[in-house]
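Obj: model holo form, ligand = protoporphyrin IX containing FE.
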Amino acid sequence: MSIQSTILRVGRKTLLADVVTTPFLLRTHSLHKTATSGSLRVAAEHSGADDLVPPAIEVGDVQKGTRVKSLKEMPGPSAFGNLIEFFYRDGFSRIHEIQMEHSQKYGKIFKSRFGPQLVVSIAGRDLLAQVLRAEGVAPQRANMESWKEYRDISGRSTGLISAEGDDWLKMRSVLRQLIMRPRDVAAFSDDVSAVVVDLVKRIKVLRSQQADRHTVLNINDMYFKYAMEGISTILYESRLGCLEDSIPKTSQEYITALNLMFSSFKTTMYAGAIPKWLRPVIPSPGGKFCSSWDGLFKFSQMHVDKKLADIRAKMVRGEAVQGGLLTHMLVTMEMNKEEITANMTEMLLAGVDTTSFTLSWATYLLARHPHVQQQIFEEVTQTLGGRMPTANDVPNLPLIRGLVKETLRLFPVLPGNGRITQDDLIVGGYFLPKGTQLALCHFSTSMSEENFPGADDFRPDRWIRKDQSDRVDNFGSIPFGYGIRSCIGRRIAELEMHLALTQILQNFRIEVSPETEDIKAKTHGLLCPGAPIDLKFVDRV
Ligand code: HEM
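Output (holo C-alpha coordinates):
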Protein backbone atom coordinates (compact mmCIF):
# COMPACT_ATOMS: atom_id res chain seq x y z
CA MET A 1 0.00 0.00 0.00
CA SER A 2 1.41 3.44 -0.85
CA ILE A 3 0.36 6.95 0.05
CA GLN A 4 0.41 9.76 -2.53
CA SER A 5 -1.03 13.23 -2.56
CA THR A 6 -3.76 14.25 -4.92
CA ILE A 7 -6.26 17.05 -5.20
CA LEU A 8 -9.85 16.18 -4.41
CA ARG A 9 -12.54 18.68 -5.13
CA VAL A 10 -15.89 18.33 -3.50
CA GLY A 11 -18.55 20.91 -4.23
CA ARG A 12 -16.77 24.23 -4.20
CA LYS A 13 -13.85 23.10 -2.06
CA THR A 14 -10.55 22.15 -3.59
CA LEU A 15 -8.15 20.55 -1.20
CA LEU A 16 -5.16 18.38 -0.85
CA ALA A 17 -5.84 14.94 0.52
CA ASP A 18 -4.04 11.71 1.09
CA VAL A 19 -4.63 9.11 -1.54
CA VAL A 20 -4.16 5.56 -0.50
CA THR A 21 -3.53 3.25 -3.39
CA THR A 22 -4.09 -0.38 -2.71
CA PRO A 23 -4.51 -3.45 -4.88
CA PHE A 24 -7.99 -3.81 -3.44
CA LEU A 25 -11.23 -2.00 -3.89
CA LEU A 26 -12.60 -1.32 -0.44
CA ARG A 27 -16.34 -1.59 -0.32
CA THR A 28 -17.13 0.62 2.63
CA HIS A 29 -16.52 4.14 3.74
CA SER A 30 -13.77 3.23 6.12
CA LEU A 31 -10.34 2.65 4.68
CA HIS A 32 -9.78 -0.18 7.09
CA LYS A 33 -12.79 -2.36 6.38
CA THR A 34 -12.98 -5.57 4.41
CA ALA A 35 -11.39 -5.61 1.00
CA THR A 36 -12.94 -7.35 -2.00
CA SER A 37 -11.63 -7.44 -5.55
CA GLY A 38 -9.01 -5.47 -7.38
CA SER A 39 -9.00 -1.79 -8.40
CA LEU A 40 -8.21 1.39 -6.60
CA ARG A 41 -10.02 3.40 -4.04
CA VAL A 42 -9.46 7.00 -3.14
CA ALA A 43 -10.34 8.01 0.34
CA ALA A 44 -9.94 11.46 1.75
CA GLU A 45 -9.67 11.62 5.51
CA HIS A 46 -10.83 14.58 7.54
CA SER A 47 -8.29 17.34 7.63
CA GLY A 48 -10.03 19.68 10.00
CA ALA A 49 -13.72 20.49 10.47
CA ASP A 50 -13.77 22.97 7.61
CA ASP A 51 -12.13 20.64 5.18
CA LEU A 52 -14.53 17.77 5.68
CA VAL A 53 -14.45 15.67 2.54
CA PRO A 54 -16.98 12.90 2.07
CA PRO A 55 -15.00 9.71 1.61
CA ALA A 56 -15.64 8.37 -1.88
CA ILE A 57 -15.02 5.16 -3.73
CA GLU A 58 -12.93 5.72 -6.80
CA VAL A 59 -13.97 3.37 -9.56
CA GLY A 60 -11.48 4.50 -12.19
CA ASP A 61 -7.71 4.59 -12.33
CA VAL A 62 -6.25 7.11 -9.94
CA GLN A 63 -3.77 9.47 -11.50
CA LYS A 64 -1.45 11.43 -9.32
CA GLY A 65 -2.53 15.05 -9.12
CA THR A 66 -5.84 14.51 -10.87
CA ARG A 67 -8.50 16.97 -9.82
CA VAL A 68 -11.83 15.34 -9.03
CA LYS A 69 -14.52 17.25 -10.87
CA SER A 70 -17.97 18.11 -9.58
CA LEU A 71 -21.30 17.18 -11.15
CA LYS A 72 -21.66 20.81 -12.21
CA GLU A 73 -18.71 20.35 -14.52
CA MET A 74 -20.10 17.24 -16.17
CA PRO A 75 -21.24 17.75 -19.78
CA GLY A 76 -24.74 16.86 -20.94
CA PRO A 77 -27.82 18.08 -22.77
CA SER A 78 -29.65 21.07 -21.34
CA ALA A 79 -32.79 20.53 -19.28
CA PHE A 80 -34.80 22.43 -21.90
CA GLY A 81 -33.30 20.35 -24.75
CA ASN A 82 -34.30 17.17 -22.91
CA LEU A 83 -37.80 18.45 -22.34
CA ILE A 84 -38.26 19.05 -26.07
CA GLU A 85 -36.58 15.72 -26.97
CA PHE A 86 -38.70 13.58 -24.68
CA PHE A 87 -42.05 15.31 -24.42
CA TYR A 88 -42.33 17.03 -27.80
CA ARG A 89 -40.33 14.70 -30.07
CA ASP A 90 -41.51 11.53 -28.31
CA GLY A 91 -38.03 10.61 -27.08
CA PHE A 92 -39.49 7.86 -24.87
CA SER A 93 -39.82 5.66 -27.96
CA ARG A 94 -36.24 6.48 -29.05
CA ILE A 95 -34.40 6.14 -25.75
CA HIS A 96 -31.83 3.79 -27.33
CA GLU A 97 -31.08 6.24 -30.18
CA ILE A 98 -30.88 9.22 -27.84
CA GLN A 99 -28.46 7.22 -25.68
CA MET A 100 -26.19 6.75 -28.73
CA GLU A 101 -26.47 10.40 -29.85
CA HIS A 102 -25.73 11.74 -26.38
CA SER A 103 -22.79 9.41 -25.75
CA GLN A 104 -21.27 10.41 -29.10
CA LYS A 105 -21.77 14.07 -28.30
CA TYR A 106 -20.95 14.22 -24.58
CA GLY A 107 -18.71 11.21 -24.00
CA LYS A 108 -18.76 8.12 -21.80
CA ILE A 109 -20.18 9.89 -18.78
CA PHE A 110 -22.70 12.70 -19.00
CA LYS A 111 -25.61 14.14 -17.07
CA SER A 112 -29.23 14.80 -18.05
CA ARG A 113 -32.07 16.47 -16.23
CA PHE A 114 -35.66 15.20 -16.32
CA GLY A 115 -37.80 17.62 -14.36
CA PRO A 116 -36.55 17.34 -10.79
CA GLN A 117 -34.44 14.25 -11.57
CA LEU A 118 -30.74 14.46 -12.35
CA VAL A 119 -29.45 11.34 -14.06
CA VAL A 120 -25.81 10.50 -14.72
CA SER A 121 -25.39 8.24 -17.74
CA ILE A 122 -22.55 5.75 -17.88
CA ALA A 123 -21.98 4.95 -21.55
CA GLY A 124 -18.47 3.47 -21.60
CA ARG A 125 -17.75 -0.22 -21.20
CA ASP A 126 -14.88 0.21 -18.77
CA LEU A 127 -16.71 2.72 -16.57
CA LEU A 128 -19.75 0.44 -16.58
CA ALA A 129 -17.61 -2.48 -15.46
CA GLN A 130 -16.05 -0.41 -12.71
CA VAL A 131 -19.39 0.87 -11.41
CA LEU A 132 -20.99 -2.58 -11.41
CA ARG A 133 -17.98 -4.24 -9.83
CA ALA A 134 -18.09 -1.68 -7.04
CA GLU A 135 -21.72 -2.42 -6.13
CA GLY A 136 -22.55 -3.29 -2.55
CA VAL A 137 -24.53 -6.20 -1.13
CA ALA A 138 -27.97 -4.88 -2.12
CA PRO A 139 -27.78 -2.56 -5.14
CA GLN A 140 -30.76 -0.26 -5.56
CA ARG A 141 -32.70 -0.08 -8.82
CA ALA A 142 -33.91 3.35 -10.03
CA ASN A 143 -37.34 4.50 -11.22
CA MET A 144 -39.36 1.99 -9.25
CA GLU A 145 -41.57 4.62 -7.58
CA SER A 146 -44.75 3.79 -9.49
CA TRP A 147 -44.35 0.07 -8.72
CA LYS A 148 -43.83 0.82 -5.06
CA GLU A 149 -46.76 3.22 -5.00
CA TYR A 150 -49.07 0.46 -6.24
CA ARG A 151 -47.83 -1.94 -3.59
CA ASP A 152 -48.29 0.68 -0.88
CA ILE A 153 -51.83 1.48 -2.04
CA SER A 154 -52.88 -2.15 -2.43
CA GLY A 155 -51.03 -3.47 0.60
CA ARG A 156 -49.31 -6.13 -1.52
CA SER A 157 -45.79 -7.36 -1.03
CA THR A 158 -42.91 -6.36 -3.26
CA GLY A 159 -41.18 -9.00 -5.38
CA LEU A 160 -37.58 -9.22 -6.44
CA ILE A 161 -37.80 -6.45 -9.05
CA SER A 162 -39.40 -3.86 -6.80
CA ALA A 163 -37.94 -4.82 -3.40
CA GLU A 164 -34.94 -3.13 -1.85
CA GLY A 165 -32.55 -3.65 1.04
CA ASP A 166 -33.13 -6.51 3.48
CA ASP A 167 -36.44 -7.56 1.87
CA TRP A 168 -34.71 -7.93 -1.46
CA LEU A 169 -31.72 -9.75 0.04
CA LYS A 170 -33.98 -12.31 1.70
CA MET A 171 -35.97 -13.03 -1.48
CA ARG A 172 -32.91 -13.08 -3.68
CA SER A 173 -31.14 -15.57 -1.43
CA VAL A 174 -34.14 -17.92 -1.65
CA LEU A 175 -34.60 -17.66 -5.41
CA ARG A 176 -30.94 -17.70 -6.39
CA GLN A 177 -30.63 -21.20 -4.95
CA LEU A 178 -33.46 -22.41 -7.14
CA ILE A 179 -33.06 -20.93 -10.62
CA MET A 180 -29.72 -19.18 -11.03
CA ARG A 181 -27.49 -21.94 -12.37
CA PRO A 182 -27.81 -23.75 -15.72
CA ARG A 183 -27.93 -27.05 -13.86
CA ASP A 184 -30.90 -25.86 -11.75
CA VAL A 185 -32.95 -25.03 -14.81
CA ALA A 186 -31.91 -28.17 -16.70
CA ALA A 187 -34.57 -29.86 -14.55
CA PHE A 188 -37.19 -27.96 -16.58
CA SER A 189 -35.80 -29.11 -19.94
CA ASP A 190 -38.47 -31.73 -20.70
CA ASP A 191 -41.34 -29.43 -19.75
CA VAL A 192 -39.97 -26.61 -21.89
CA SER A 193 -39.35 -29.01 -24.81
CA ALA A 194 -42.99 -30.06 -24.67
CA VAL A 195 -43.99 -26.38 -24.98
CA VAL A 196 -41.61 -25.99 -27.95
CA VAL A 197 -43.29 -28.95 -29.67
CA ASP A 198 -46.57 -27.04 -29.31
CA LEU A 199 -44.92 -23.90 -30.68
CA VAL A 200 -43.84 -25.79 -33.81
CA LYS A 201 -47.42 -27.08 -34.21
CA ARG A 202 -48.72 -23.54 -33.74
CA ILE A 203 -46.41 -22.24 -36.48
CA LYS A 204 -47.90 -24.87 -38.81
CA VAL A 205 -51.45 -23.89 -37.91
CA LEU A 206 -50.83 -20.15 -38.28
CA ARG A 207 -49.06 -20.38 -41.63
CA SER A 208 -51.82 -22.66 -43.00
CA GLN A 209 -54.21 -19.72 -42.48
CA GLN A 210 -52.35 -17.55 -45.03
CA ALA A 211 -52.73 -17.74 -48.80
CA ASP A 212 -49.07 -18.71 -49.40
CA ARG A 213 -49.27 -21.39 -46.64
CA HIS A 214 -45.88 -20.23 -45.32
CA THR A 215 -46.25 -16.85 -43.69
CA VAL A 216 -46.88 -16.27 -40.01
CA LEU A 217 -48.11 -12.74 -39.43
CA ASN A 218 -46.80 -10.74 -36.48
CA ILE A 219 -44.51 -13.44 -35.11
CA ASN A 220 -44.19 -11.63 -31.79
CA ASP A 221 -47.77 -12.44 -30.92
CA MET A 222 -46.95 -16.14 -31.30
CA TYR A 223 -43.68 -15.91 -29.35
CA PHE A 224 -45.45 -13.97 -26.61
CA LYS A 225 -47.80 -16.91 -26.12
CA TYR A 226 -44.90 -19.36 -26.26
CA ALA A 227 -42.97 -17.38 -23.64
CA MET A 228 -46.01 -17.14 -21.41
CA GLU A 229 -46.68 -20.85 -21.71
CA GLY A 230 -43.01 -21.68 -21.11
CA ILE A 231 -42.50 -19.52 -18.04
CA SER A 232 -45.84 -20.58 -16.51
CA THR A 233 -44.89 -24.22 -16.93
CA ILE A 234 -41.83 -23.49 -14.83
CA LEU A 235 -43.28 -21.03 -12.32
CA TYR A 236 -46.74 -22.51 -11.75
CA GLU A 237 -46.01 -26.08 -12.82
CA SER A 238 -49.07 -25.93 -15.04
CA ARG A 239 -49.95 -25.39 -18.68
CA LEU A 240 -52.11 -22.42 -19.60
CA GLY A 241 -53.26 -23.33 -23.11
CA CYS A 242 -51.81 -20.17 -24.70
CA LEU A 243 -50.73 -22.09 -27.81
CA GLU A 244 -54.20 -23.53 -28.41
CA ASP A 245 -56.67 -22.19 -31.00
CA SER A 246 -58.83 -20.85 -28.25
CA ILE A 247 -57.07 -19.45 -25.21
CA PRO A 248 -58.71 -20.08 -21.80
CA LYS A 249 -60.46 -17.01 -20.34
CA THR A 250 -58.13 -16.59 -17.34
CA SER A 251 -55.00 -16.66 -19.54
CA GLN A 252 -56.62 -14.18 -21.93
CA GLU A 253 -57.41 -11.88 -19.02
CA TYR A 254 -53.78 -12.03 -17.95
CA ILE A 255 -52.63 -11.11 -21.48
CA THR A 256 -55.03 -8.14 -21.44
CA ALA A 257 -53.66 -7.00 -18.06
CA LEU A 258 -50.09 -7.27 -19.32
CA ASN A 259 -50.88 -5.25 -22.45
CA LEU A 260 -52.54 -2.62 -20.28
CA MET A 261 -49.43 -2.47 -18.11
CA PHE A 262 -47.17 -1.81 -21.08
CA SER A 263 -49.55 0.70 -22.62
CA SER A 264 -49.36 2.78 -19.42
CA PHE A 265 -45.56 2.72 -19.52
CA LYS A 266 -45.15 6.21 -20.92
CA THR A 267 -47.42 7.84 -18.34
CA THR A 268 -45.57 6.12 -15.50
CA MET A 269 -42.31 7.46 -16.95
CA TYR A 270 -43.76 10.98 -17.01
CA ALA A 271 -44.69 10.49 -13.36
CA GLY A 272 -41.02 10.39 -12.37
CA ALA A 273 -40.39 13.68 -14.10
CA ILE A 274 -43.27 15.44 -12.32
CA PRO A 275 -42.30 17.01 -8.99
CA LYS A 276 -44.16 15.40 -6.08
CA TRP A 277 -45.84 18.71 -5.10
CA LEU A 278 -47.41 18.91 -8.57
CA ARG A 279 -48.81 15.38 -8.50
CA PRO A 280 -52.16 16.26 -6.86
CA VAL A 281 -53.01 18.72 -9.67
CA ILE A 282 -51.84 16.55 -12.56
CA PRO A 283 -53.90 13.56 -13.64
CA SER A 284 -52.16 10.51 -12.23
CA PRO A 285 -51.25 7.53 -14.41
CA GLY A 286 -52.57 5.39 -11.55
CA GLY A 287 -55.96 4.13 -12.74
CA LYS A 288 -54.91 2.02 -15.70
CA PHE A 289 -51.64 1.08 -14.07
CA CYS A 290 -53.27 -0.12 -10.85
CA SER A 291 -55.94 -2.13 -12.58
CA SER A 292 -53.33 -3.87 -14.73
CA TRP A 293 -51.35 -4.75 -11.59
CA ASP A 294 -54.59 -6.02 -10.01
CA GLY A 295 -55.04 -8.30 -13.02
CA LEU A 296 -51.46 -9.60 -12.86
CA PHE A 297 -51.62 -10.27 -9.11
CA LYS A 298 -55.03 -11.92 -9.45
CA PHE A 299 -53.59 -14.40 -11.93
CA SER A 300 -50.67 -15.38 -9.69
CA GLN A 301 -52.89 -15.49 -6.63
CA MET A 302 -55.16 -17.96 -8.41
CA HIS A 303 -52.24 -20.27 -9.24
CA VAL A 304 -50.69 -20.01 -5.78
CA ASP A 305 -54.03 -20.76 -4.07
CA LYS A 306 -54.67 -23.70 -6.34
CA LYS A 307 -51.24 -25.19 -5.72
CA LEU A 308 -51.59 -24.68 -1.98
CA ALA A 309 -54.96 -26.45 -2.00
CA ASP A 310 -53.41 -29.37 -3.97
CA ILE A 311 -50.57 -29.66 -1.48
CA ARG A 312 -52.93 -29.58 1.51
CA ALA A 313 -55.18 -32.20 -0.07
CA LYS A 314 -52.20 -34.49 -0.64
CA MET A 315 -51.05 -34.05 2.93
CA VAL A 316 -54.53 -34.86 4.24
CA ARG A 317 -54.52 -38.05 2.15
CA GLY A 318 -51.08 -38.87 3.54
CA GLU A 319 -49.48 -38.75 0.08
CA ALA A 320 -45.93 -37.55 -0.56
CA VAL A 321 -45.79 -33.97 -1.79
CA GLN A 322 -43.62 -33.67 -4.87
CA GLY A 323 -43.41 -30.92 -7.42
CA GLY A 324 -41.43 -28.10 -8.96
CA LEU A 325 -40.65 -24.51 -8.11
CA LEU A 326 -43.95 -23.34 -6.65
CA THR A 327 -44.45 -26.55 -4.67
CA HIS A 328 -40.97 -26.19 -3.23
CA MET A 329 -41.60 -22.57 -2.25
CA LEU A 330 -44.95 -23.33 -0.65
CA VAL A 331 -43.65 -26.31 1.27
CA THR A 332 -40.49 -24.66 2.58
CA MET A 333 -42.20 -21.27 3.17
CA GLU A 334 -38.85 -19.47 3.23
CA MET A 335 -40.97 -16.58 2.00
CA ASN A 336 -44.51 -15.98 3.17
CA LYS A 337 -47.47 -16.52 0.84
CA GLU A 338 -47.77 -12.83 -0.11
CA GLU A 339 -44.08 -12.69 -0.96
CA ILE A 340 -44.34 -15.87 -3.03
CA THR A 341 -47.32 -14.43 -4.93
CA ALA A 342 -45.54 -11.13 -5.53
CA ASN A 343 -42.45 -12.89 -6.82
CA MET A 344 -44.47 -15.14 -9.10
CA THR A 345 -46.23 -12.02 -10.44
CA GLU A 346 -43.02 -10.11 -11.06
CA MET A 347 -41.18 -13.09 -12.58
CA LEU A 348 -44.04 -13.84 -14.94
CA LEU A 349 -44.17 -10.20 -15.94
CA ALA A 350 -40.38 -10.09 -16.45
CA GLY A 351 -40.27 -13.34 -18.35
CA VAL A 352 -42.75 -12.89 -21.18
CA ASP A 353 -42.01 -9.84 -23.36
CA THR A 354 -38.26 -10.06 -22.78
CA THR A 355 -38.10 -13.59 -24.15
CA SER A 356 -40.63 -13.06 -26.94
CA PHE A 357 -38.96 -9.89 -28.29
CA THR A 358 -35.60 -11.66 -28.33
CA LEU A 359 -37.07 -14.64 -30.21
CA SER A 360 -38.73 -12.26 -32.70
CA TRP A 361 -35.45 -10.48 -33.38
CA ALA A 362 -33.46 -13.73 -33.54
CA THR A 363 -35.71 -15.28 -36.19
CA TYR A 364 -35.95 -11.97 -38.07
CA LEU A 365 -32.13 -11.77 -38.17
CA LEU A 366 -31.87 -15.40 -39.33
CA ALA A 367 -34.35 -14.71 -42.13
CA ARG A 368 -32.35 -11.67 -43.24
CA HIS A 369 -29.04 -13.55 -43.14
CA PRO A 370 -29.60 -16.90 -44.88
CA HIS A 371 -25.87 -17.74 -44.81
CA VAL A 372 -25.73 -17.41 -41.07
CA GLN A 373 -28.93 -19.42 -40.78
CA GLN A 374 -27.40 -22.20 -42.89
CA GLN A 375 -24.23 -22.22 -40.77
CA ILE A 376 -26.25 -22.60 -37.55
CA PHE A 377 -28.56 -25.18 -39.12
CA GLU A 378 -25.50 -27.27 -40.05
CA GLU A 379 -24.20 -27.10 -36.50
CA VAL A 380 -27.58 -28.28 -35.23
CA THR A 381 -27.82 -31.21 -37.65
CA GLN A 382 -24.23 -32.27 -37.09
CA THR A 383 -24.66 -32.20 -33.33
CA LEU A 384 -28.15 -33.64 -32.97
CA GLY A 385 -29.05 -35.37 -36.21
CA GLY A 386 -32.84 -35.13 -36.14
CA ARG A 387 -33.04 -35.65 -32.37
CA MET A 388 -34.90 -33.16 -30.21
CA PRO A 389 -32.52 -30.98 -28.16
CA THR A 390 -32.33 -31.04 -24.37
CA ALA A 391 -30.62 -28.67 -21.94
CA ASN A 392 -27.63 -31.00 -21.90
CA ASP A 393 -27.09 -30.44 -25.65
CA VAL A 394 -26.84 -26.66 -25.36
CA PRO A 395 -23.11 -26.57 -24.43
CA ASN A 396 -22.47 -28.42 -27.70
CA LEU A 397 -24.37 -25.85 -29.74
CA PRO A 398 -22.08 -22.78 -29.51
CA LEU A 399 -23.67 -21.07 -32.50
CA ILE A 400 -27.15 -21.34 -30.99
CA ARG A 401 -25.76 -19.67 -27.88
CA GLY A 402 -23.93 -17.14 -30.07
CA LEU A 403 -27.21 -16.44 -31.89
CA VAL A 404 -28.93 -15.48 -28.64
CA LYS A 405 -25.97 -13.39 -27.45
CA GLU A 406 -25.62 -11.59 -30.76
CA THR A 407 -29.36 -10.92 -30.94
CA LEU A 408 -29.28 -9.44 -27.45
CA ARG A 409 -26.21 -7.38 -28.35
CA LEU A 410 -27.98 -5.83 -31.34
CA PHE A 411 -31.34 -5.59 -29.58
CA PRO A 412 -30.80 -5.56 -25.80
CA VAL A 413 -34.35 -5.87 -24.46
CA LEU A 414 -33.43 -3.48 -21.67
CA PRO A 415 -31.48 -0.83 -23.60
CA GLY A 416 -30.62 0.86 -20.33
CA ASN A 417 -30.82 0.11 -16.66
CA GLY A 418 -30.97 2.30 -13.58
CA ARG A 419 -29.25 2.44 -10.23
CA ILE A 420 -29.18 4.70 -7.21
CA THR A 421 -25.65 4.94 -5.88
CA GLN A 422 -25.25 3.77 -2.32
CA ASP A 423 -21.87 5.31 -1.63
CA ASP A 424 -20.15 8.51 -2.61
CA LEU A 425 -18.32 7.54 -5.77
CA ILE A 426 -15.70 9.02 -8.02
CA VAL A 427 -16.45 7.79 -11.52
CA GLY A 428 -14.52 8.83 -14.59
CA GLY A 429 -12.98 11.64 -12.55
CA TYR A 430 -16.33 13.04 -11.32
CA PHE A 431 -17.59 13.04 -7.75
CA LEU A 432 -21.06 11.46 -7.53
CA PRO A 433 -22.67 11.89 -4.12
CA LYS A 434 -24.48 8.91 -2.58
CA GLY A 435 -28.05 8.77 -3.91
CA THR A 436 -27.16 9.82 -7.46
CA GLN A 437 -29.35 8.22 -10.11
CA LEU A 438 -27.32 6.36 -12.72
CA ALA A 439 -28.43 5.27 -16.19
CA LEU A 440 -26.35 2.35 -17.39
CA CYS A 441 -26.31 2.67 -21.18
CA HIS A 442 -26.25 -0.93 -22.40
CA PHE A 443 -27.38 -0.11 -25.92
CA SER A 444 -24.56 2.32 -26.65
CA THR A 445 -21.85 0.03 -25.26
CA SER A 446 -23.10 -2.95 -27.26
CA MET A 447 -23.32 -0.89 -30.47
CA SER A 448 -19.90 0.69 -30.04
CA GLU A 449 -17.28 -0.04 -32.72
CA GLU A 450 -14.61 0.18 -30.06
CA ASN A 451 -16.15 -2.77 -28.21
CA PHE A 452 -17.45 -4.73 -31.20
CA PRO A 453 -15.72 -4.09 -34.52
CA GLY A 454 -18.35 -4.26 -37.28
CA ALA A 455 -20.93 -3.47 -34.60
CA ASP A 456 -23.84 -3.22 -37.06
CA ASP A 457 -23.13 -6.68 -38.48
CA PHE A 458 -25.00 -9.75 -37.32
CA ARG A 459 -22.25 -12.25 -36.47
CA PRO A 460 -23.21 -14.95 -33.95
CA ASP A 461 -19.77 -16.52 -34.45
CA ARG A 462 -18.10 -13.52 -32.81
CA TRP A 463 -19.13 -15.11 -29.49
CA ILE A 464 -17.25 -18.33 -30.09
CA ARG A 465 -14.20 -18.21 -27.91
CA LYS A 466 -11.37 -19.83 -29.83
CA ASP A 467 -8.83 -18.93 -27.20
CA GLN A 468 -8.28 -16.31 -24.55
CA SER A 469 -6.97 -13.67 -26.97
CA ASP A 470 -10.16 -13.91 -29.03
CA ARG A 471 -12.36 -13.25 -26.05
CA VAL A 472 -15.03 -10.59 -26.51
CA ASP A 473 -14.79 -8.30 -23.53
CA ASN A 474 -17.66 -9.16 -21.25
CA PHE A 475 -18.95 -5.76 -20.22
CA GLY A 476 -19.57 -4.48 -23.75
CA SER A 477 -22.81 -6.43 -23.89
CA ILE A 478 -24.49 -7.40 -20.63
CA PRO A 479 -28.17 -7.80 -21.60
CA PHE A 480 -28.97 -9.58 -18.32
CA GLY A 481 -27.04 -7.09 -16.20
CA TYR A 482 -24.12 -8.06 -14.01
CA GLY A 483 -23.52 -9.24 -10.49
CA ILE A 484 -25.70 -9.67 -7.47
CA ARG A 485 -28.72 -7.76 -8.87
CA SER A 486 -28.55 -9.19 -12.39
CA CYS A 487 -31.46 -11.00 -14.03
CA ILE A 488 -32.50 -13.96 -11.90
CA GLY A 489 -34.40 -15.48 -14.84
CA ARG A 490 -31.42 -15.50 -17.19
CA ARG A 491 -30.96 -19.28 -17.24
CA ILE A 492 -34.69 -19.87 -17.67
CA ALA A 493 -34.85 -17.39 -20.57
CA GLU A 494 -31.80 -18.93 -22.19
CA LEU A 495 -33.22 -22.43 -21.88
CA GLU A 496 -36.51 -21.34 -23.46
CA MET A 497 -34.74 -19.53 -26.30
CA HIS A 498 -32.05 -22.14 -27.01
CA LEU A 499 -34.54 -25.00 -27.15
CA ALA A 500 -37.07 -23.04 -29.23
CA LEU A 501 -34.53 -21.77 -31.79
CA THR A 502 -32.97 -25.20 -32.19
CA GLN A 503 -36.29 -26.93 -32.82
CA ILE A 504 -37.47 -24.14 -35.14
CA LEU A 505 -34.29 -24.49 -37.22
CA GLN A 506 -34.66 -28.28 -37.31
CA ASN A 507 -38.16 -27.90 -38.72
CA PHE A 508 -38.17 -24.77 -40.88
CA ARG A 509 -36.14 -22.57 -43.17
CA ILE A 510 -37.02 -19.04 -42.13
CA GLU A 511 -37.46 -16.42 -44.85
CA VAL A 512 -38.43 -12.78 -44.93
CA SER A 513 -41.98 -12.21 -46.08
CA PRO A 514 -42.21 -9.72 -49.00
CA GLU A 515 -44.45 -7.57 -46.78
CA THR A 516 -41.79 -7.25 -44.08
CA GLU A 517 -39.62 -4.22 -44.61
CA ASP A 518 -36.54 -3.21 -42.69
CA ILE A 519 -37.84 -3.30 -39.12
CA LYS A 520 -36.43 -0.69 -36.76
CA ALA A 521 -36.44 -1.01 -33.00
CA LYS A 522 -38.39 1.33 -30.77
CA THR A 523 -38.31 1.71 -27.02
CA HIS A 524 -41.56 1.08 -25.24
CA GLY A 525 -40.23 0.37 -21.79
CA LEU A 526 -38.39 -2.48 -23.48
CA LEU A 527 -36.66 -2.41 -26.86
CA CYS A 528 -39.19 -3.92 -29.21
CA PRO A 529 -39.84 -4.24 -32.96
CA GLY A 530 -41.21 -0.96 -34.28
CA ALA A 531 -43.63 -2.76 -36.62
CA PRO A 532 -45.11 -6.25 -36.86
CA ILE A 533 -42.67 -8.82 -38.24
CA ASP A 534 -44.12 -11.34 -40.72
CA LEU A 535 -41.90 -14.30 -41.60
CA LYS A 536 -42.15 -17.38 -43.79
CA PHE A 537 -41.58 -20.77 -42.18
CA VAL A 538 -40.81 -23.23 -44.96
CA ASP A 539 -40.60 -26.96 -44.16
CA ARG A 540 -37.04 -28.32 -44.14
CA VAL A 541 -38.15 -31.73 -45.35
C1 HEM B 1 -34.32 -12.34 -22.87
C2 HEM B 1 -34.77 -12.44 -21.66
C3 HEM B 1 -34.43 -11.54 -20.51
C4 HEM B 1 -33.62 -10.44 -20.46
C5 HEM B 1 -32.80 -9.83 -21.57
C6 HEM B 1 -33.65 -9.95 -19.09
C7 HEM B 1 -32.94 -8.86 -18.64
C8 HEM B 1 -32.96 -8.41 -17.35
C9 HEM B 1 -32.22 -7.27 -16.87
C10 HEM B 1 -31.29 -6.40 -17.70
C11 HEM B 1 -32.51 -7.12 -15.56
C12 HEM B 1 -31.98 -6.04 -14.62
C13 HEM B 1 -30.69 -6.48 -14.02
C14 HEM B 1 -30.03 -5.42 -13.19
O1 HEM B 1 -30.70 -4.53 -12.65
O2 HEM B 1 -28.79 -5.47 -13.07
C15 HEM B 1 -33.42 -8.16 -15.19
C16 HEM B 1 -33.92 -8.35 -13.91
C17 HEM B 1 -34.81 -9.34 -13.59
N1 HEM B 1 -35.30 -10.34 -14.41
FE1 HEM B 1 -34.81 -10.61 -16.36
N2 HEM B 1 -34.49 -10.75 -18.36
C18 HEM B 1 -34.97 -11.73 -19.18
C19 HEM B 1 -35.83 -12.76 -18.82
C20 HEM B 1 -36.30 -13.00 -17.56
C21 HEM B 1 -37.12 -14.12 -17.17
C22 HEM B 1 -37.53 -15.29 -18.06
C23 HEM B 1 -37.44 -13.95 -15.87
C24 HEM B 1 -38.29 -14.87 -15.01
C25 HEM B 1 -37.85 -15.65 -14.13
C26 HEM B 1 -36.79 -12.73 -15.42
C27 HEM B 1 -36.86 -12.22 -14.14
C28 HEM B 1 -36.16 -11.11 -13.70
C29 HEM B 1 -36.24 -10.62 -12.33
C30 HEM B 1 -37.10 -11.18 -11.21
C31 HEM B 1 -35.38 -9.52 -12.27
C32 HEM B 1 -35.08 -8.67 -11.03
C33 HEM B 1 -33.85 -9.25 -10.32
C34 HEM B 1 -33.48 -8.53 -9.05
O3 HEM B 1 -33.75 -7.34 -8.92
O4 HEM B 1 -32.91 -9.19 -8.17
N3 HEM B 1 -36.11 -12.18 -16.48
N4 HEM B 1 -33.69 -8.94 -16.29
